[in-house]
Amino acid sequence: MTKLAQTLEQRQKLSPQQILQTILLQMNSVDLEVRIMAELEENPALELTDGEQSEEESSTEESSDEMDWEEILNSDEDDERLKGRSQRSSDMPDEPIRAVRSPVEKLLDQIALFDLSSEERTIAKTIVWNIDEQGYLSIDMELIADRLECDVANVESVLRTVQRLEPAGIGARDLQECLSVQLEVGDEHGLAKKIVDQYFDHFANRRFERIEDELHCTREELLEAFEVISHLNPKPGDGAPTTKADYIVPDISVDEVDDKLLVSVNDSDLPDIRLSPVYENILKTQNGNNKEVKKFLREKVERAKWFVQAIQQRQITMTKVMEAIMKRQDFFFSGETSKLRPMILKDIADDIGMDISTVSRVTRGKYVQTPWGVFELKYFFSEGMMTDSGEEVSTRLVKNLLKKIVEGEDKEHPISDDGLAEILKEKGYPLARRTVAKYRGQMKIPVARLRRAI
């Protein structure tokens, strides 16, 4: 007989305000600016602060009782009508003018120059829209063929055309194909092309003698071929992402003022927004004859209030987290930047009385401008380890030392992980070989045999 058991489970449900705060908190300043502009477009009860009430705002206030709310609610363009555009000057364009075309647009511009059939053009656009930020195709050929109901052979043919656009190799499915296309476009069909097409595994694993034996080439010829390959671009989309800037915009600043370090959130470039007084007044003066109108107004006004409050709370939380980091990392912020204390997210969460998840959102993908340079916030976090002298030090310090040892090694005889562990032990940092391997991997340092010079 099947037994039925009932369990009472309590779950915490986040309110819409909390969800909005969570979303905005994890955004960096660039993404937040985009989100604010999008919110201004979507919510007529939110507007840019412009100091003085505009004529349009005044006229809207005066004529609010005369608005045909039923017509507005039933219109597809209700938001455009409701906004009144009080936050914009009459001669300002609705959309920002872009001076630079995106990488996707540049590829589509090139495709337009080719004599393609309607099906081929659709395939080409689908391929371009599925290229990731590094320039590689992020979708299978079969899936494109299935979606567009065409032959895989046609997709393969169009892909070859896309891969020969500028930059060459764009849309490749892997590194080998990316390099091969670039060599072909550059009319390089010699030793370098053979190495990439036929002996890529040997090349990637630096099996130089095997390549020399199988291609019957000299070491000098091999070096010339490697020189050609080294000038190819392994990430044809790198440096030109489709949505984000390729430069760092600090989200927080730490400035020295009167011999004190002060924290400020970099929001000066963000649009200054507020709840529209016009909409707030309209909501208060509505007679209540039309419940739909009142509901519409209340939702928009509440959403605008939540949004403004969420941005203010974001500033408060980010400031608290940064000040707690500075207190913990007092050596660093007193100028001894090589001295980082062990510190984890829980330490900061405990210091400011917030959840670890909140601290994680604040520190993820954000940067701080300090008198000693720009640092990613996660730079200040690391586990600790005990030295031979009993001192607890940051693992970041040990990683930096490990990196210096590797940089100074004899490249013809690179040091193994066992050797690196022995050197670190001699310097007072006892680490197991596997821990050395883990740290080396985290810093993207290859194993010894791949570090060996030709």
List the helices and strands and how they pair.
Elements: H1 16-25, H2 29-42, E1 46-48, H3 55-62, H4 69-74, H5 78-83, H6 103-111, H7 118-129, H8 141-148, H9 152-163, H10 175-185, H11 191-198, H12 200-204, H13 208-215, H14 219-230, E2 252-257, E3 260-265, E4 273-275, H15 277-285, H16 291-328, H17 345-352, H18 356-363, E5 367-370, E6 373-376, E7 384-386, E8 392-394, H19 395-407, H20 417-426, H21 433-442, H22 448-451
Parallel strand pairs: 2-5
Antiparallel strand pairs: 1-4, 2-3, 5-6, 7-8
Summarize the structure.
The chain has helices spanning 16-25, 29-42, 55-62, 69-74, 78-83, 103-111, 118-129, 141-148, 152-163, 175-185, 191-198, 200-204, 208-215, 219-230, 277-285, 291-328, 345-352, 356-363, 395-407, 417-426, 433-442, 448-451, and strands at residues 46-48, 252-257, 260-265, 273-275, 367-370, 373-376, 384-386, 392-394.
